[in-house]
Design brief:
Blueprint (H helix, E strand, L loop, with lengths): L1 E2 L2 E2 H18 L6 H15 L8 H25 L18 E6 L1 E2 L5 E5 L2 E7 L3 E2 L4 E8 L2 E6 L2
Parallel strand pairs: 6-9
Antiparallel strand pairs: 1-2, 3-5, 3-8, 4-7, 5-6, 8-9
Length: 152
């Protein structure tokens, strides 16, 4: 199977890589499992196993997809401390939450650190500087950091 010199396998691998990249840049949406499955299916297609046209191919594809999903969930569970369930937090879900600055924050850098619900986040302010130990509220999230304001 080819699309003007490009195998469907490479397209599927590219789609899986895109999902994994999305997970890296926006953690918490659990895109790692489908990304891994797509990469494995793409590799199978490149190896000549056409999982879409035979019953055995479909069974092999589904079996490998389930094994990849279980392996990914197992890897996530091994990364969490003992006794805690693995979970992910979307940065957008932090808006309105309160916490404490553990390192001073300003509008110029991402050096500020805030602890919110036991998690440490890179923080900056919209304007001015907030000192370490101040109570803060999350007002937005941008990229890989949160924007906070001091609670007075």
């Amino acid at each position: 199977m080819a699309v003007e010199g490009l195998s469907y396998g490479w397209l599927v691998i590219l789609a899986g890589t895109f999902l994994i990249a999305l997970e890296v840049f926006s953690p918490g949406f659990f895109l790692l499992v489908p990304g891994t499955v797509l990469i494995i299916i793409g590799i199978l297609l490149l190896l000549g196993i056409d999982i879409f046209s035979t019953n055995i191919g479909i069974l092999v594809g589904v079996g490998i997809a389930i094994a990849a999903a279980l392996a990914t969930v197992f890897a996530y569970s091994r990364m969490t401390p003992a006794g805690q369930k693995p979970y992910t937090i979307s940065m957008d879900s932090l808006i309105g939450k309160e916490g404490v600055l553990t390192k001073a924050a300003d509008e110029q850098s991402l050096d500020g650190k805030a602890t919110i619900e036991g998690q440490v986040w890179s923080a900056k302010t919209e304007t001015g500087t907030i000192s370490e130990g101040a109570r803060i509220r999350v007002i937005s999230s941008k990229g890989v950091h949160i924007v906070v304001e001091e609670i007075v």
